[in-house]
């Protein structure tokens, strides 16, 4: 015979549903990586960069535009350039260099994972 639901039974049911929702949400984020669309896209680009060969070789002299400036952990200001999407940090830059300037650089070394390189400034192109 069906009777009225007891308050304890209703509370248990509600608590069970909440636990399922919380655990389900956690699992979903865990499987998806918990990343926003922008972070996911950045992660995918980083993974692709790790899997492809750099478009430059050690000793190459190339021309590239300055995208921005960054400060190295030593305090030195460096130019950030891109060659076919590959990031190159350029050291020994003059103080009057501006974003958008096209410079000549020489590739000195690859950084960890070969996802970027360090280069020396050779002059304004």
Q: How many structurally independent domains?
A: 2
Q: Assembly type of the shown chains?
A: single chain
Integer average pLDDT: 88
Number of helices, where a helix is a run of at least 4 consecutive DSSP H or I residues: 2
Measured by DSSP, the beta-strand proportion falls in: 25-35%
Q: Please mark out the parts with pLDDT under 50 across 5 or more consecutive residues, or reply none.
A: none
Q: What order do the helices and strands follow?
A: HHEEEEE
Structural class: alpha+beta
| CATH homologous superfamily assignment of the largest domain | Nucleic acid-binding proteins
CATH class of the largest domain: Mainly Beta
Largest sheet geometry: 5 strands, mixed, barrel
Morphology call: elongated
Instruction: Give the termini separation.
Output: 90 Å
Order of strands side by side in the largest beta sheet? Answer: 1-2-3-5-4
């Amino acid at each position: 015979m069906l009777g009225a639901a007891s308050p304890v039974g209703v509370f248990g049911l509600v608590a069970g549903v909440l636990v399922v929702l919380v655990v389900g949400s956690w699992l979903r984020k865990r499987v998806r990586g918990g990343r926003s669309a922008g972070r996911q896209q950045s992660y995918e680009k980083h993974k692709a960069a790790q899997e492809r060969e750099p478009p430059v070789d050690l000793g190459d002299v190339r021309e590239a535009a300055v995208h921005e400036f960054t400060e190295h952990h030593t305090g030195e200001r460096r130019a950030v350039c891109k060659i076919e999407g590959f990031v190159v940090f350029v050291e020994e830059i003059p103080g009057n260099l501006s974003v958008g300037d096209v410079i000549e650089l020489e590739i000195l070394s690859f950084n960890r994972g070969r996802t970027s390189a360090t280069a020396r400034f050779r002059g304004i192109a």
